[in-house]
Amino acid sequence: MERSTRQRSAIRTVIDVAGRPLSPQEVLDAAQGEVPGLSLATVYRNLKQLLEAGEIQTVSLPGDSPRYESAHHDHHHHFQCQDCGRVFDIHACPGDMAQLAPKGFTVASHELTLYGRCADCGAAKKAAPKRVAAKTTAVKLAAPKTSTTRAAASTGTAAPARTAARARTAKPRA
C-alpha cells in the first residue's frame, strides 16, 4: 500500500468534497489551495494510485477526457453542461432499461448522461444578450469607414479591398 502524502490527502479531499466528477485540471486548481506547489504531473500520479486503491473511479463521457469521482457513490448518472463543460451527478435513475433493449437482448448495466446548460451558465446566458448588444452597437458606431468602403458604398457594389488596391497600384500598359 502506498503511503499517504499531503498531496494525495488534498486530492482525495477535493474529490470527496466536490460532489461531482472532476477533471485533473479541476482537481489541481482546487487542491492548490491546500498544497500551493502541487503540479499536474503529481495530480495524475496520485489519481492513478487512488484508482488502483479503489478510492476513486473514472467517469468517461463520449468525446471527453476522463473525470474522477469518489468510489463511494451508489448507482447514479451525470449531466454535462455544454457551455462550461462541467459534469454534475444526478442521483436518480429511470430504473430498469431492459424494456428499451431489442427483443432477446439482456441488459447488464447502463449509463445515462444528460446534456444541456447548468444553472450558472443559464443565469449568465440570460444576462449576456444585453451586454453583447451594447458592445456590438458601440463597435459599429466607432468603426471608421475606409476609402474602399466609401467607394463601394457610392457605386453600390461591395468590391473587395484587394481589388481596389490593385487598381491603384497597377502599372499602365505600353
If you had to describe this structure to a student in words, what would you say it looks like?
The structure is a single chain. The protein has 174 residues and is of the alpha+beta class. The protein has 2 domains: 6-117, Arc Repressor Mutant, subunit A, CATH 1.10.10.10; 127-168, no CATH class. Helix content is 44%, strand content 12%. It is built from 6 helices and 5 strands; from the N terminus they run αααβββββααα. The strands form 2 sheets. Strands 4-3-5 form a 3-stranded mixed sheet, with no helix packed on it. A two-stranded antiparallel ribbon has the order 1-2. Strand 3 (77-81) and strand 4 (87-90) form a beta hairpin. The chain is flat and about 55 Å long. The N and C termini lie far apart (89 Å). 14% of the residues are buried. The model is unreliable at 131-172 (pLDDT under 50).
